[in-house]
Amino acid sequence: RHFGVDVEEGYEFFMDPDKFQCRGANDPNVYLDDASDRLARNLANGFSVIADTLRKAKDFERAEKLLLKSRALIPRATEPIQLLAKIYADQNAIEKLQNLIDTADYKPKEALMVVLGQSYRRRGDEARAEASYNAALTINPSYRPAFDELVRLYMEKRKYTAIRNALMRWLQFNPQDQQI
Predict the structure, then answer these.
(1) Which of 85, 16, 90, 22 is nearest to 59 (CA)?
(2) Which of 78, 88, 104, 108 has the most CB atoms at less than 10 Å from its CB?
């Protein structure tokens, strides 16, 4: 047991095709009504609970396998994509993270771009981090986490003109933002 979850039993259950079967949720031709869609997403959350526990225990390989299976079985679920992004970021696996961003049908994509930017910062690649945050703001000029990370980067580098420009751009798209 890790963090209150029986990881081994859960992992074995989800990974064993004789114990866990999920059919139809990955077929775009199969109609899922609201109740069926919620059930499928709840199953994906079950995968994610086990995978997140594995991630916290630094068992990234098994967590990734579990989430990839979840994505294959229940592609409409977003939780596995968010968690995969965290796992790739924890491992500094930028190539895998970039591939996830490029291939995942995930909204908001800008959230994954912020995770990518944070990974670049941990690597010391401020230019790519800045580009990732700006890409997120291009997708959604009102996405506050990207703005906050961009300004934080500029503050640490003492790029005061860049801070001013970021603030002006933010206010152009978010004139009602009372915190700024």
Answers:
(1) 90
(2) 88
Alpha helices in the chain (DSSP H): 7-15, 34-56, 60-73, 79-90, 94-103, 109-123, 126-139, 144-156, 160-173
Is the entire prediction scored with pTM above 0.85? no
What distance in Å separates the CA atoms of residue 7 and residue 74, rounded to the nearest whole number? 20
**Are 23 and 14 spatial neighbours (Cβ–Cβ below 8 Å)?**
no
| The two structure tokens encoding residue 107 | 């909204």
Q: Which residues contact 160 (CB under 8 A, 6 or more apart)?
A: 154
Residue 104 Cα distances to 72, 96, 98, angstroms? 11, 12, 10
